[in-house]
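[job 0412] stage=fold_complex status=start
inputs:
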Amino acid sequence: MYEPDPDLIRAARSGDSVAFEVLVRNYQAHIWRFLRHFLGDPELAEDVTQETFVRVFRRLDSFRFRSKFSTWVFQVARNAGIDALRARRRRERIELEARRTIPVVTADTSARVEIEAALESLKPKHREAFVLVEALGFSYREAGKAIGIPEGTVKSRVFHAREQLVSWMSVREDDVGNV
Amino acid sequence: MSDDNRLLLSRYMDGELTPSETEEVESLLARSPEARRYLESLQALRRRIRYELAEPGPDVTGRVLEAIDGVGHARPIRSRLLPAFAAGLAAGVLFVGLALERPSTVAAADIPSRVFEAQSSVVALDAQIIIVERGWHPEVPERNFRGRLSYRAPESLVVVIEDQTTYPSTDWQPNDSTRVVAESMSWESAIQGCPTSGLPDCLVEEPRVQLVEGREPFPDSLPAPLDLIVPVRSFAGAAEPDPIGLEVVNGRQAVGVEVSVAQAQALLDGLTGAGNWRDFHPTDVVQLWLDSEFLFPVSLRVYPAANEDRMLWAARNGYDDAVSVPILEVDWSEITTTGSSTPTLPDQPPGLVGIDAGFEESAFSNAVLLGIEVPEGMTIHRTGTLESGGPTVSITSWSDGRAWLKVSSTTTWPGGRLFGDVGVPARQVGLSEGVAYLSERGDRIGLHSDALDLIVTGSVGTQTLIEVADSLDIVGLEIPGGWAEASVVTLDEARELVPLLLQPVGLLGFGPPSVRAHPGSVEFAYAGPGNRGFTLIQAVEDSLAPPLEADVTGVEVRGLNARYSPSRGVLEWVEGELVVTLQSETLALDELVIIADSLAMP
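[job 0412] stage=fold_complex status=done
writing structure:
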């Protein structure tokens, strides 16, 4: 994960919009990818990605260089994501409990659609830890800081997510093999 | 297998085990096929996740900047960090020379066309040089040098660099260097380079000194670093470079541009080609200020690029560079262009024994060249015969200031490939009579006939080389089928092999491609200014071969899943019935994606 030079962060904090733009460009894809799976909605993830960076800009003064900047940005993103989920709950009164069944592979055989559907089948708390570690390459410690849970909990959530997805992959391969 | 062991394997894959747990897992893997299968399935899952979910995502930058502007906090200030940051925009991309369309900026826009003309105006150049290099070694984070440069057209040059760094101990050797080219003689004294990881033990106490006599005009090996005088190679054929400004720099009215290290490589080699210097990544950013009249350099800064390829490269090579700090600063001062006709040469080290390169000067007598038409203003520089172990070669050179042209020919070429290192891939070009073969970079053109093989080279631009070749009293033949360059085909022939062939459309900053045909595939080679270039390979296949590297990542191009290997600089994907591959050692991923997106059937 990209870690900016401290001088770049300081420049952005002092109001250098070009420096801040570099930060946005280096993190936006990662943040969007995380939020997309956290929220389960690509369009909402785009809006929340924007909101994340507005919050990052407003709160740059509070970054004390004691943790990795990437971890801090993901904390901001996650908080923005939680706020968005709450707003959506209020608005749509939707039960956000994840679908726990193994997804049925539909006529759309795009590999990406399949893997996204499989991710959707995970419990949100498992998916969140799994995406940070597996897709974005965070260590357990970094993921724990970003989510606000102990390292040990990250370890077990990632493991449970993997167990379910490995099982899904083997079922799918069997299905394909039987066609 | 127990839950505990599966959990252990999960943590093993994440690199989160203690050494004793690692030993335990490796023992488990050695004895349990079930454990190996489980680990393989975890690895397969990771590949799928990283490959298939690696979407670029939306670009929210504009909306964010607009929003924070509304917040009232952002001030559009240009800090001293700005140039490097600006160069790092778009996830560290340097879109130098890759613009598909953009408005013209007068001073910077003129450079690629003016560089040929400007070189003829420079007949003498003297300057002091101040160099600051950063990040060479953790124990020596900054080194300081002073030097002098003295040039007399067309090929006499002295570059002396004196290391003024205070090193931690006498184990470290100063990086002093001297390079002297005086027409048929050249000598160089410098310590040998060695890798950062081996410093200082790998430094040899005595500098290596090499003297060459009987040097042919403008040789390919041990050339005079003429891009240090006017950076022709860096800008010939380039698209409009990114402008920085127009202002007085080091006492000269100068035009500032931003280019990549790959584009400015020949200029940088002129400074750091001898001795022990740090390396730069091809995508690193060079802010270059050129005298606005003569286009010689007056100042340059190299900043680390901020793209992921560069970060990976830095980690591999032990560099810990901050994106905001220049890793090389060079300033030219006390510049004069009116020096005497003879440069002041430094004393040669005593007892130096030279290597005879085999060139003997003689009067112009090559009948083939009697009708040659060289550019106006060019006069014969040196002419003679080269005997260096191979066929006897007759050489004639012309010059006009720093500009030069050379024709080499032989009547005893044994064949197998074109004479004169045209190289593969080459591009066949039609002349008024017969054909010639142009090198990938467009800086040499070869002709083959029954009686004679000939090569035209020079610093004058591709079109001028073609016109010079066309003026010769020789009809170029197509080369025999067994020669190395015979795989070169025309675009129409390539389309017969692969009917739905894609090509970049609207791409600036690269010359026409060389096209080669292989069984079931077609390869285009595109060369840009400096060392910039890429190849585009299209093969009739329906799937990608399994990746060989561990660092492969997923990328979306043209709405399709592609994979990218930073270590090989290869971007590849399946499109229709083709496997399309873009490969470059000098362009970053984002530039390859732009090229990929521009592909179409012309």
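[job 0412] summary: The two ends of chain B are 58 Å apart (CA to CA).
[job 0412] exit 0
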